[in-house]
Amino acid sequence: MASSKDFSKRELVLPVYLPSFLFSTAEFGIVPSIPATVFLFTEDLATAGLITGLLMIGRLVADLPAAKLIDFLGERKAMILAAATGAIGILPSLFAFNLFMLGAGVFLVGAGSAVFGLARLSWMTEHVPIAIRARALSVLGGMFRAGSFVGPTLAAAIIAIFSVKAVYFLPLVLCSAAVVILLFAKGGEDVAKNSSSLKETLLVARREGKKLATLGVASSILSALRGTRMIGLPLIAVALTIPTEQASLIIGIAGALDFAMFYLSGQIMDRFGRSFAAVPTLFGLGLAHLIVGIAVDANTFLLLALLMSVANGIGSGVIMVLGADLAPPDKRSEFLASYRLLVDFGDAAAPLVLAPMVLAVGLTGAMAGFGILGCVGAGLMYKYIPRYAVTPDKKP
């Protein structure tokens, strides 16, 4: 690993940042359109939430096998394979004539996202100096947020010009572009490793159980709230009968605000400590979930989306930073696979829990339930994260 003086974040643009932006744009671009596509087959909010949630479930299913795949192929080749999976995997959704085909394509994009995310995080943990880790990873978080702005905005234009189904060309085109960039990008070489077994991954998880049971669970709660935000906003738009292209544009505008805050988050984490970003983002998202009832038309829907973006933007990259901080050098991929499994479990559980809650107490009540969970997560982050980040280059 290079020292922070010798390392420039510009070295990460082609091997990490740009492909991440493209993959994120593809992923976020289809999310607002999934509920509307489901409504072409059945007008049921719970089913729409479940099909949208297959994106997160695909990530969850792929998390543990991802560590073995990354050890076998190396981080860069794993990212190429994951991006190719996103491009090819969306084809069933693109040509779907039933809910099964639609869900299968969404699931495969989620599975590709899991491998891509773990490989990228493992590569950056290996190559980025710890003194600038939070800033480098917050820029990576910013690529997600840029995608959350550009993706829905592109989707809104595609829907206005063509149709809702045409949005599914985004992953096909953008993930293919990511593959091409990764094939020709120069960066740090993959570190050769013996392929890990599932048993070895589980043993590492047991060894590092205290980390996973505290900060891992707190990160899982944060991921769950981000998942309900990702799914809940399109569902609220459908419930308010806001046109799909207008809802996509509003979500894109909120994503721009989210994106604008990413570097501030990295500065906060490197200068003051991880808790100064993690606690406010969890508390803020929890509060925003509790007050989703304020959205009664397009204007108040925009206000709600902006409030969620402010809360989410404060914690840009915090889950990745905590994972990188906690990962033991000798078993990095194995630990990160378990950590990502917890994080993606929260993400995947969100739609599975949200759907029956919507049936039982309505969408507003279901979102409020997750808001209470967010406050619990904020308490865990406050208790278990050290107040200040300590790095070799700078101590508080």
Description:
- With 396 residues, the protein is mainly alpha-helical.
- The chain has a single domain (12-184, 196-384), classed as Up-down Bundle (Growth Hormone, Chain: A).
- 78% of the residues lie in helices and 0% in strands.
- It contains 16 helices and no strands.
- It has helices at residues 13-30, 33-38, 45-73, 75-89, 91-94, 99-127, 133-161, 169-184, 198-207, 209-239, 244-260, 262-272, 275-290, 298-314, 318-326, 332-384.
- Helix 1 runs antiparallel to helix 8.
- The two termini are 23 Å apart.
The CATH class turns out to be: Mainly Alpha
Number of E-type strands: 0
**Poorly predicted segments:** 388-396
CATH architecture: Up-down Bundle
The fraction of residues assigned to DSSP E strands is under 5%
Biggest beta sheet summary: none
Determine the number of helices (DSSP H or I, runs of at least 4 residues).
16
* CATH fold name: Growth Hormone, Chain: A
**Integer average pLDDT:** 86
Helix-strand topology string = HHHHHHHHHHHHHHHH
| Secondary structure category | mainly alpha
CATH homologous group name:
MFS general substrate transporter like domains
The rounded distance between the terminal residues' Cα atoms is: 23 Å
Number of domains: 1
Task: Based on Cα principal axes, name the global outline.
Answer: globular
Helix content: over 70%
User: What Rg do the Cα atoms give?
Assistant: 19 Å
Helix and strand arrangement:
Layout: H1 13-30, H2 33-38, H3 45-73, H4 75-89, H5 91-94, H6 99-127, H7 133-161, H8 169-184, H9 198-207, H10 209-239, H11 244-260, H12 262-272, H13 275-290, H14 298-314, H15 318-326, H16 332-384
